[in-house]
Every structure is written in structure tokens, then in C-alpha cells.
Amino acid sequence: MKLKDSSLLRAGSYINGNWCTSSKEFDVTDPATGNIIGSVAEVTLEQIENAITGAKLAQKEWALKTAKERASALMYWYSLIMANQADLASIMTAEQGKPLRESVGEIAYAASYIEWFAEQGKRIYGDLIPQPSNDRRLLTIQQPIGVVSAITPWNYPSGMITRKAAPALAAGCSFIIKPSELTPLSALALAELADRANIPSGLFNVVVGLDAESIGNELTQNPAIRKFSFTGSTKIGKKLLAQCSSTIKRTSLELGGNAPLIVFDDADLDVAVRGAMGSKFRNAGQTCVCANRIMVQRGIYDTFIERLTVQISKLKIGHGHIEDTDIGPLISCAAVTKVDSLVKDAIAAGAQLVLGGKIDKQGKYFYQPTLIIDVKPNMRIAKEEIFGPVASIIPFDTEEQAISMANDTPYGLAGYFFSADIGRSWRVSEALEYGMVGVNEGILTSVQAPFGGIKESGMGREGSHYGFDDYLEKKYICMGNL
Ligand code: ADP
Hints:
Blueprint: E1 14-15, E2 18-19, E3 25-29, E4 36-41, H1 45-64, H2 67-83, H3 85-96, H4 100-120, E5 127-129, E6 137-144, E7 147-151, H5 159-171, E8 174-178, H6 184-196, E9 204-206, H7 212-221, E10 225-231, H8 234-244, E11 250-254, E12 259-263, H9 269-281, E13 291-297, H10 301-313, H11 333-348, E14 352-355, E15 370-373, H12 380-383, E16 390-396, H13 399-407, E17 411-412, E18 414-418, H14 422-431, E19 436-439, E20 454-455, E21 458-459, E22 472-479
Parallel strand pairs: 7-8, 7-10, 8-9, 10-11, 12-13, 12-18, 13-16, 15-16, 18-19
Antiparallel strand pairs: 1-2, 3-4, 5-6, 6-22, 11-21, 14-15, 17-20
The structure holds adenosine-5'-diphosphate (ADP).
């Protein structure tokens, strides 16, 4: 990894404006090669306590600033992130593996949350409520919830952090983040830039360590923290939600998905193939909104598969730092093994392999872009999150059948469908039990829109003006005897 500014690489937690060291370190590796790219000091319990105490103090002062003052600080941070976009992207590709152009895109995406919430913070309004009797006036004000903690995964090492930190800071909260132990360097680089942007000490803290459970215990159970936000697996999310109950912490969760992508007979097939490719193969299929079950109506089944095969065959697999790479490594050997076992299981149960289906010659961390067809809804591959570059195609006959299959899952994050029929577009949009629906579109995330799931995919929304709701308390004030 070649950087213009190597001081963006930090080697320990950032707490109260200080860089911490400790007696234990852990290595960060390049998932494409397994080579060590850095070592980072593990946070200690005492340092986490300091972070919480400092965040509590800093938040009190920050909340007293005007929205405009908070916005200027955040805009400075935003501009430094964009000025260092190339280096930040390079760090991300080195520790996470995604193609460099996707990392460049993620940095802009991550920064967009800071810009948007800085602006939107100026529009946090209260209400005047018509009074029940004339000697009273009723009103609401919105106030920052207080200290916020968060835990994020490795698949979007920067975007998942700013999606939470930006509304928290813009609303007047302070923030403590534990990034994934697999991608701490991107988080620490964001902290370095927050420091350079003079974001006051104690407001943005990054705690890094291998012992996710102990750090998580503190971040979910310390009473000084008033809100906890998590992005990760449903299994861990459930556990952390239970932990938050001991102090009734406001909790938001962005968890796993099992996204259907339905292609109807009447769809524009070029649009549908493009949508399926974008949704499925971005980040080598390691996103929670990835099309996990591509359902294709019988009338166009063969044609769609032919066209998809052509596009998948063009994907170039390789190290994310090589310019024309489309598919990087998976995050670990364990991830490769899991994806391979899902594919093998489907084939053993009667699905047909059209393309791929093997660990690639590039090395043990790379899985070939794969296409399997004639998948049945009861196969493991249709029930579990694949989290790899595998398109799995299920045939269907009627709209009713597609909707019922699509909804037959405990998850409800993103769903997609392709149709040129306006009536069907409304019907299916309303019938899909998902927090987000893409109609003739395979990629739907943007800062202006509310991202989030229903059912076991989570609760709360990130982005859009709704993104503030989780970081604000509504206070009702009754003025009586007027
Ligand atoms: P993923 O499959 O994306 O790794 P996880 O839910 O395992 O999903 O991890 C997401 C985040 O949750 C990471 O930062 C990880 O360190 C953290 N994590 C994992 N297990 C725990 C735990 N028991 N307590 C707190 N955090 C955890």
C-alpha cells in the first residue's frame, strides 16, 4: 500500500483526543495475501472507561454549541476526508480487499453522511401543539440523546461508521466506535482526520481490540451510554440487544438479510441483468443488501440466464489494488469455505452449476464468480446469507408465488424486482416485507434515503432525515397557568 500521507496509518485507539498504546498488539492482514500490513494496540478496559467518561463530559459542551458551529466542525472533517480520499481508499482495499474503485466510492459515500447531516442538523425542529385549554401551551423540543456507542463490521469499514457518527455528532451527541478487528485502520484514519479537523476531544473515539465480547459488554451495558448502534450479523445483534436491555438503552440494529431479486417476464432484461450484477457482485457479494435469491419467471428464465452468464464471465478476479479487478478476495478462508459449502450443498441437492463453483487459482482467499441455477427455496443457499460472489437462481411461475417465496424468510432488509408494468410495480412494492425495495434498480443506498430493515434484519433507519430520530430525545414541555 503506497500512501501520499503515511501518517494516516495509526496504531492504537483514539480516546479523548489521544492516541493510546498498550502492552498487547494485534496484526491487521491483507485478505488477498494473508500478509501483515500493520499492528494495532489492543484497547484496555481502563481506556474504554476513560473514553466513556470523556465522551460524557465532551457531550455536555458540544450540546451547547449551535447547530451551525457543529456543522462547521463536521464540514471541515468532511473536506479532509475528501482531500485524502485516495489514501483512505488504499488503506481500505489493503485491509478489506475490495477493488480500489469501490473503496474510492465508499470513501465518498462515507463522507457524504458527514456533509448531509452537518447540513440537516440545522433543521432539527420542535413542535407547538394546539392546546387543550387556553391557560396552557404545549410544545416539544428535540435534544441530543447523549453518549452513543457503536459496533461496526468489516464489509464497509468507513461507511458503516460515518452513517452512525455523522447524525450522532450533528445532533449534539458524542460517539464511541468499535470497528471490526479485521478493519481497524480505516476507522483510525477517520479519527486522525477528525483530530486534524479539530473535532473537540472526547466527541469521536475509536476503540480497537480483538476481544469484541469484552468491549461489547462495556459499550452495551455502561449506564453512561444512552444509545447503542450496531451493524453486523443477526446472531450477534440479538445478543447485544439483550445486553442493552439492562440499562434500557436506545438501540438500533442493521443486521443480516436474504434479499430477493425478482425478474418478471415483462422486465427490460438489459436493465434486470445490470441490476442483478450490481446488486450481487459488488464487494464480491459481501454486503447485507446483496441479491441472495435471484428469482426469475419461467417465460424469460433461459434468456436471462444466458445474458447473466455472459456478464459474469467478464468479471476479473484479483487483488483489489490491481486496476481492472472486479472481484477481490473474500474476507477470510472461513468465508471461502462457507461459500463453497453452500454451493456444494445446492449442487448435491439438485441445482445446476453454470459457472465457477471453485476456489480460484489466484489463491485460497479468492472464490470464483459463480452461477447456479434451478435452486429450490428450501436449499441452504436460499435460506442463509451467501456473502460471496455466487448468483443463485430460482425459477417461479406467478407473481403471487414470487411474493410469497420472497417473504418466506425471517429477514426483511432489501428486496428488488424488475418489471415494466406500473400496476405490478405498485402491487409488488407494497407486498414485499422489506425495509427497502428497489424497482428496476439493483443498488439503492444513498444518504438521502432511509436505510434499514424489518423483522430480524433490524430496527432503526440510517440516512435521510429519519436518520436523526435515533439520536434525539423528544421532550414535551407543558406551560400551565398562563
Ligand atoms: P460479521 O459477520 O460481519 O463479522 P459479526 O456480527 O460477527 O458480523 O461482527 C460485526 C461486529 O460485531 C464486529 O465489529 C465484531 O467484532 C463485533 N462482534 C462480534 N462478536 C461480538 C460480541 N460477542 N460482542 C460484541 N461485539 C461483537
